[in-house]
Design goal:
alpha+beta; binds 2-acetamido-2-deoxy-beta-D-glucopyranose; Bactericidal permeability-increasing protein, domain 1; BPI/LBP/Plunc; Bactericidal_perm-incr_a/b_dom; antimicrobial; 47% strand; Bactericidal permeability-increasing protein, domain 2; six-stranded antiparallel sheet
Length: 485
């Protein structure tokens, strides 16, 4: 749950000496105001769930003599904090100001006077509550966010007490004494409670993971690389944004370069994705062998003109059929090195460096290597985001991918001369067929997983040199339990 609260609050530091991030997020005032709802909910649940200390005392009262009293089981029944302002506290964190807040508390009371013990319940109505708190936000050495109550001022303008039960009709005549004591106690207690709640939150953050497992071989490091930056009307957070293999030493082949987010009108959230982020994923997928595929004839669509057997290939490589008449082939497709992604105003460019090794499947099922081709291709892609109304997904990714350039060259051959032109044409057709199916998939859209019941509103992807920018508003559907607070 943390990052949802934290995102509006966190920011990054773009300055000389700062480390370069793979991902950069920016939240503006509009996003922060949306985050105010969470902030208030958090304050409410903090106050509501906190056991407020019991109050014990003694007082000399007219007619009653020395009165010993106790107020126990104090509970907040209603909390009114609607008149509140949230803003960024420059260079520090987030500033929450509440005016004209109201609280309705219930408690049990007990009295001991000259005339013996008495007891019942009591309603305490607090009004004209004002609160001004600054939540400081930074990062620790491990890149986890750190929060603290940087500033707090709180006060109660008015407090009324009404007793029920026992001889209430009598005590209600003398409530003003108690009201003064309670108001003073609460005025002292409020900021202490805020600080305690913030400390609890800080403890949760200290235990948080700054990486998330994507699948069995990929984990994403999203630790903060710089101290969050808080401006007057926006905050920025720099995340590492690097993929790595769980439990394996990191391989730092690329270095992320520093980047600035372009000015964007008024989306709540801007997410800057660097080439480093994409290439770090590509490198991991390459290293773990996820980009290797073995293809046999059964996997080729029916009706495709070229079949994977030596007879079919005999037209191009006569020697192949002569050496291995009427035998099936296996094709091992793989990457020679990791694909390279780059971001440009016209879209995502991807370079693949592939190899195709063709082997004959011998009758005893072992493979006889026949030849190897090197295949280099350049692709471009355009991507879009679409909102999804059902709660099962944050949104949908759509797009198109096109082949720009394609080049085949011979690596080695155990079967003599290979007619390259024909193979190149055949492979181009194969790639186009592959692209058709990829584009069909991308046209329908890839449903992105739901993250904490947040969905994208008016999401947009804009491409810049070296940067993919996602600009979006967010909508959060809280679970029923939080709504009831
Ligand atoms: C509030 O406190 C109760 C018991 O003291 C506990 O069961 C409940 O989980 C707490 N709720 C939250 C939101 O912390
Ligand atoms: C916090 O907000 C209040 C009200 O908008 C403002 O008066 C105060 O100066 C702010 N404090 C900081 C530290 O930004
Ligand atoms: C953090 O990650 C470790 C290992 O991946 C896991 O055992 C632990 O439960 C995670 N902690 C939290 C708070 O998610
Ligand atoms: C492909 O086949 C080769 C040789 O049979 C084998 O070593 C390799 O593990 C296979 N690769 C995949 C991804 O199945
Ligand atoms: C399979 O047959 C080929 C030739 O027919 C032979 O060279 C090879 O050793 C055999 N492999 C196995 C595992 O029997
Ligand atoms: C891919 O594009 C780059 C320039 O962007 C060019 O240098 C390279 O030759 C191209 N490769 C192929 C296989 O088209
Ligand atoms: C998401 O919404 C569902 C349905 O309202 C709720 O059961 C679930 O707890 C929510 N999850 C989070 C993380 O808010």
């Amino acid at each position: 749950m943390f990052w949802l609260f934290a995102l509006p609050f966190l920011a990054s530091w773009v300055h000389v000496g700062g480390l370069s991030p793979g991902l950069k997020a920016q939240v503006n005032q509009k996003g922060l105001e949306y985050g105010r709802e969470f902030g208030l909910r958090m304050v409410k649940s903090m106050l509501k769930n906190d056991t407020i200390p019991d109050i014990h005392g003694a007082h000399d009262a007219p007619l009653l003599g020395k009165v010993q009293f106790s107020v126990t089981g104090i509970q907040i029944n209603e909390l009114q904090l609607d008149d509140s302002i949230i803003s960024f506290a420059k260079g520090l964190g987030v500033n929450l100001t509440v005016q004209n807040g109201g609280v309705l508390l219930n408690a049990n009371w007990k009295l001991r006077t000259l005339f013996g013990p008495d007891g019942g319940t009591v309603d305490i109505t607090v009004s004209a509550l004002s609160l001004s708190a600054v939540l400081g936000i930074s990062k620790d050495v491990k890149g986890r966010p750190v929060v603290w109550a940087a500033r707090c001022r709180a006060g109660i303008g008015d407090l009324r007490v009404k007793f029920h039960g026992g001889n209430s009709w009598f005590y209600n005549r003398f409530t003003s004494v108690l009201e003064v004591i309670l108001q003073a106690k609460l005025n002292k207690q409020l900021c202490f409670e805020i600080k305690k709640g913030t400390d609890d939150f800080a403890r949760v953050l200290r235990a948080m993971n700054v990486s998330v497992q994507i699948n069995s071989f990929a984990e994403l490091d999203y630790s903060l690389v710089n101290k969050p930056f808080f401006g007057a009307n926006r905050c920025q957070v720099d995340f590492k944004g690097e993929f790595f293999s769980p439990g394996q030493p990191r391989i730092n082949v690329f270095t992320p370069s520093s980047f600035l987010l372009p000015k964007q009108p008024d989306s709540m959230l801007l997410l800057g994705i660097s080439e480093f982020f994409a290439n770090s994923a590509a490198l991991l997928y390459f290293r773990t062998g996820a980009l290797q595929r073995n293809i046999t004839d059964e996997m080729i669509p029916k009706g495709f003109p070229i079949r994977l057997n030596t007879e079919n290939m005999g037209m191009v490589i006569p020697e192949l059929e002569k050496k291995f008449p009427d035998m099936p082939l296996e094709v091992q497709v793989g990457a020679r090195k990791q694909p390279e992604f780059s971001f440009h105003p016209d879209g995502v460019h991807m370079k693949i460096f592939g190899s195709v090794e063709v082997s004959v499947i011998l009758p005893n099922a072992s493979l006889a290597p026949a030849f190897l081709l090197n295949i280099d291709g350049n692709f471009t892609g355009q991507f879009f985001l679409e909102p999804v109304s059902s709660g099962i997904s944050i949104g949908k990714l759509l797009g198109t991918v096109a082949l720009k350039h394609f080049q085949v060259s011979q690596g080695w051959s155990n079967v003599g001369h290979i007619e390259m032109k024909f193979l190149e044409n055949a492979l181009t057709v194969a790639v186009q067929v592959g692209l058709l199916s990829i584009n069909k998939h991308l046209k329908k859209g890839i449903v992105l997983p739901n993250i904490h019941n947040v969905s994208l509103v008016n999401p947009q992807i804009a491409m810049y040199q070296g940067l993919m920018l996602v600009a979006t508003d967010l909508h959060y559907q809280p679970p029923a339990a939080v709504l009831s607070l």
